[in-house]
Design a protein that fits this description.
The protein has 498 residues and is of the alpha+beta class. The chain has helices spanning 8-33, 96-107, 109-115, 131-152, 159-174, 209-216, 227-231, 252-256, 264-278, 333-348, 352-366, 370-385, 393-405, 415-433, 456-473, 480-497; strands at residues 45-49, 55-59, 177-185, 190-191, 195-199, 202-206, 235-245, 284-291, 307-313, 330-331, 437-439, 446-448. Strand 5 and strand 6 form a beta hairpin.
């Protein structure tokens, strides 16, 4: 059996960090004993709840101390020196241990590229390194010391406790791949359970208070989401066992703040499955990345630091004081199992028509304009059921929707009723496209010049949900020709019986 040989740089890095953390702990204790003040932890929140059980965040007046704040260098002429208790000099600035750590990081190619800001490594004309470089090189030891005090409520150094904090940071620096969970809070839905597993690596799970506080810090970054809407989630979709490529840690926050970095196809297929199987009005506005077994930074004593991006993938009505509604729809264990089954099948589907159907179903629930919602729904129906031929397309689509819908469990409408409703939807669509509809003042509903069509968008969404669910459960009908054969068999059966 080959003997494990430790990476010499990892060993030296740990030794240097350890020595610097001891100095930082002593400096924290000296600062406290001298009556020095600590800044509050930045952007610390409190969790409160609306009457309907949905949470919301508010700024806390009792934030925990940031034990690393005495180490933040403040220029004497900045007018901010009082923030460091009147001191503009880092108390570890002259520490040999910190100097050796800084030298190791700035001179080792691997550590420099992982830890320091890119392109800012060269010294100035006087031979000194840019202040951002020296700050970044010393940052880890200071943050580890602050985390240590938050977790163990002591500045007395203990090697085992130090290693428990440091090892997660070391994995974050040296690993080539960083394991993560993708977490998506589900808006404005109550759940009758704490956790339901959809498969081995996917689950719907309750967010505990500490996770809620960690995600609350992401509320101000990105565009397009309302802060009060963002808070209104008690559970999340969790996609486990994902990995991201490691790289420059100075840019991690920026990398993970882009919505394009996340598996949007998986996420949108889940919400399409949820809408198709339950018709619950919901959506999401946060894309969160939870480190698993590694850390780059921490927020006081919270279990994990979350990276994230914000977006607006929810109905516009949510921003119209929806958080004050006294009751909200609830998802049961049985509902979650049905959604999970549809989601798994959607993940397996490779047809482009289903991808279009998923996208348009989600869009038609997130549109602010009901006309746009109706058009999205009809585009989806055409993608799912059209054969590419334009002759009598509306008639054929209405027939196919009627036929497919009869396979839906518990279908209460007759084929003729569904056929007539789809024709009505297409009449409304035609009026929209040709400019023959007008908005009712002050309303999202539509009206035609002569024929009212205010219910057409909801009818379109209803039949789209049904069609998508049936095609997910019965993949043989994803080809329109198979639906036509189903219709012909039904006709032949009736003729034989007459």
């Amino acid at each position: 059996m080959s003997e494990f040989v430790a990476n010499p740089i990892e060993v030296e890095f740990e030794q240097k960090i350890c020595s610097a953390v001891k100095v930082a702990l002593d400096a924290i204790e000296a600062h406290r004993n001298s009556g020095g003040l600590f800044m509050d932890e930045f952007d610390w929140l409190e969790l409160q709840y609306w009457q309907n059980g949905m949470p919301w965040f508010t700024k806390s007046n009792s934030a925990p101390p940031n034990y690393a704040s005495p180490f933040y260098w403040v220029p004497p002429d900045s007018g901010m020196s009082e923030a460091n208790d009147g001191r503009a000099v880092d108390p570890t600035d002259a520490s040999p241990e910190f100097a050796l750590l800084e030298r190791l990081i700035t001179e080792n190619d691997f550590l420099r590229e992982r830890i320091l800001p890119a392109g800012k490594w060269d010294p100035g004309a006087d031979g000194t390194l840019p202040k951002i470089v020296t700050f970044s090189a010393r940052y880890a030891a200071r943050k580890i010391a602050s985390r240590y005090v938050h977790l163990y409520h002591s500045t007395r150094f203990d090697a085992t406790q130090f290693k428990a904090v440091f090892d997660s940071y070391k994995r974050g620096v040296f690993a080539e791949k960083l394991p993560v969970d993708i977490c998506i809070p589900i808006l404005f839905v109550r759940f009758s359970f704490d956790e339901v597993r959809i498969d081995e690596k996917i689950k719907i799970s309750r967010m505990d208070d500490e996770f809620q506080l960690a995600r609350g810090s992401q509320r101000s970054y990105g565009v397009g989401s309302h802060e009060l809407v963002m808070g209104c989630a008690t559970h999340m979709l969790v996609l486990e066992s994902w990995e991201v490529s490691n790289g420059n840690h100075f840019n991690l926050f920026q990398r993970f703040a882009s919505r394009d970095y996340y598996p949007l196809d998986h996420i949108d297929r889940f919400f399409a499955a949820l809408r198709a199987t339950s018709a619950i009005p919901t959506g999401y506005c946060q894309l969160l990345l939870r480190p698993v077994g590694w850390a780059d930074q921490w927020k006081a004593g919270l279990p994990t630091y979350l990276y994230g991006a914000t977006t607006r993938a929810y109905p516009g009505v949510f921003e119209d004081f929806y958080w004050t509604r006294p009751t909200l729809p609830e998802l049961s264990v049985s509902d979650a199992a049905t959604c999970g089954s549809a989601f798994r099948r959607l993940l397996e589907a490779t047809e482009n028509s289903l991808s279009i159907g998923v996208r348009r179903l989600n869009l038609c629930y997130c549109r602010d304009d009901e006309e746009d919602s109706l058009i999205d729904a009809t585009i989806a129906l055409e993608a799912l059921l059209s054969d590419g031929e334009h002759q009598e397309m509306t008639h054929k689509l209405a027939l196919r929707v009627a036929a497919v819908s009869q396979l839906y469990p518990g279908q209460l409408k007759s084929g003729q009723q569904i056929f007539d409703e789809v024709k009505k939807v297409y009449t409304a669509r035609s009026r929209i496209i040709h400019g023959k509809t007008r908005k009712i003042p002050g309303s999202r509903a539509m009206s035609a010049t002569r024929t009212p069509i205010s219910d057409a968008p909801e009818i379109a969404r209803e039949h789209l949900r049904t069609v998508l669910r049936v095609l997910v459960e019965y993949p043989q009908y994803r080809k329109p020709r198979a639906i036509d054969e189903l219709l012909l068999r039904a006709i032949g059966s009736r003729v034989a019986q007459s």
